[in-house]
């Protein structure tokens, strides 16, 4: 996913992309920011897009910076932002050297989604390097378990709508064949774009490898309406989610 891909989405970013901080049903993101924040601390939101999460976390920090490599999204973020303790800057996080963004707390929501493992690792390494020792990093990523659960839910929904098990399986297996680009790598197409999804254990292992310790995991639940036209009956409590991992720089 190149810079132009994200620039092309700037106009109607909220319609095209899941901005998880806008649909975080249990307010896990502001609660986490509150727990890690302080008026003497600064936060950086790496891959801030139109700044939705930047604005959610800003009240809990002395200053907050959003960083992205899409100039059009940074313009959009600026236009949507009123807070005086928020600023935005351009940077390509996949470039190993370059400008540093030292911070007490790093946030990174749905940026480690490239189907290229080297790109994901480069971005994660760069973000962790910018966190001061003893500071924290918060990574939110699409959950592979949740993506697979969608097929189960859709299958159960079709059966309860009166389709035979055979018909429902043919339909849902068809979706899965179309969407799942590589199960062992956790690559699933979202809106036709190959997108990395992490399993919970995998995310913890990944972040430990890049220098975080005491990594904990939480689910950021969002509504079914983000994925399906009709909310599946009887599954109000079984919602889709992104993983949120929080770790301390060792
Ligand atoms: C799915 S959007 C998430 C936006 C935002 N974090 C949110 O949750 O609303 C992914 C963002 O990552 C940014 N991004 C992807 N690769 C990047 C890179 N190498 N350097 C800087 N930003 C990058 C894109 O421009 C886009 O804004």
Q: Could you walk me through the main structural features you see in this protein, from its secondary elements to its overall organization?
A:
This protein is α/β, with parallel strands linked by helices. It has one domain (3-142, 198-249): 3-Layer(aba) Sandwich (Rossmann fold), CATH 3.40.50. It has helices spanning 3-7, 13-16, 28-36, 52-57, 71-80, 117-130, 144-160, 165-179, 200-209, and strands spanning 38-46, 61-68, 86-90, 103-109, 131-142, 180-182, 187-190, 193-196, 212-221, 241-249. It has a 7-stranded mixed sheet with strand order 3-2-1-4-5-10-9, sandwiched between helices. Strand 1 (38-46), helix 4 (52-57) and strand 2 (61-68) form a beta-alpha-beta unit. Helix 7 (144-160) runs antiparallel to helix 8. It is globular and about 60 Å long. The two termini are 31 Å apart. S-adenosylmethionine binds next to helix 4.
CATH superfamily assignment? Vaccinia Virus protein VP39
**How many strand elements?**
10
Order of helices and strands: HHHEHEHEEHEHHEEEHEE
End-to-end separation: 31 Å
With strands numbered from the N-terminus, the spatial order across the biggest sheet is 3-2-1-4-5-10-9
Low-pLDDT residue spans: none
Shape: globular
CATH architectural label: 3-Layer(aba) Sandwich
* Assembly type: single chain
The helix-and-strand class reads alpha/beta
Write the CATH fold name: Rossmann fold
- Attached small molecules: S-adenosylmethionine
Note the main sheet.
7 strands, mixed
Give the number of domains: 1
**Helical proportion, percent range:** 25-40%
Please give the radius of gyration in angstroms. 19 Å
How many helical elements?
A: 9
What is the top-level CATH class? Alpha Beta
Mean pLDDT: 93
Instruction: Provide the β-strand percentage band.
Output: 25-35%
């Amino acid at each position: 996913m190149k810079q132009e891909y994200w620039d092309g989405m700037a106009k109607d970013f909220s319609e095209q992309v899941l901005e998880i901080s806008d649909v975080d049903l249990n307010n896990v993101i502001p609660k986490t920011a509150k727990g890690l924040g302080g008026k003497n601390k600064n936060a950086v939101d790496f891959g801030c897009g139109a700044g939705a999460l930047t604005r959610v976390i800003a009240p809990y920090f002395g200053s907050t910076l959003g960083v992205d490599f899409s100039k059009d999204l940074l313009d959009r973020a600026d236009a949507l932002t009123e807070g005086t303790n928020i600023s935005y800057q351009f940077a390509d996080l996949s470039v190993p050297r370059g400008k540093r963004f030292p911070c007490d707390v790093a946030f990174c929501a749905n940026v480690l989604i490239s189907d290229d493992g080297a790109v994901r690792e480069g971005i994660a390494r760069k973000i962790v390097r910018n966190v001061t020792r003893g500071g924290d990093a918060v990574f939110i990523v699409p959950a592979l378990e949740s993506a697979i659960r969608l097929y189960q839910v859709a299958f159960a929904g079709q059966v309860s709508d009166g389709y035979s098990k055979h018909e429902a399986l043919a339909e849902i297996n068809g979706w899965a064949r179309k969407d799942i680009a590589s199960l062992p790598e956790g690559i699933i197409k979202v809106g036709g774009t190959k997108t990395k999804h992490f399993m919970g254990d995998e995310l913890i292992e990944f972040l430990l490898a890049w220098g975080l310790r005491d990594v904990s995991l939480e689910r950021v639940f969002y509504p079914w309406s983000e994925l399906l036209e009709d909310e599946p009956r009887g599954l109000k409590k079984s919602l889709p989610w992104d993983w949120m991992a929080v770790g301390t720089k060792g």
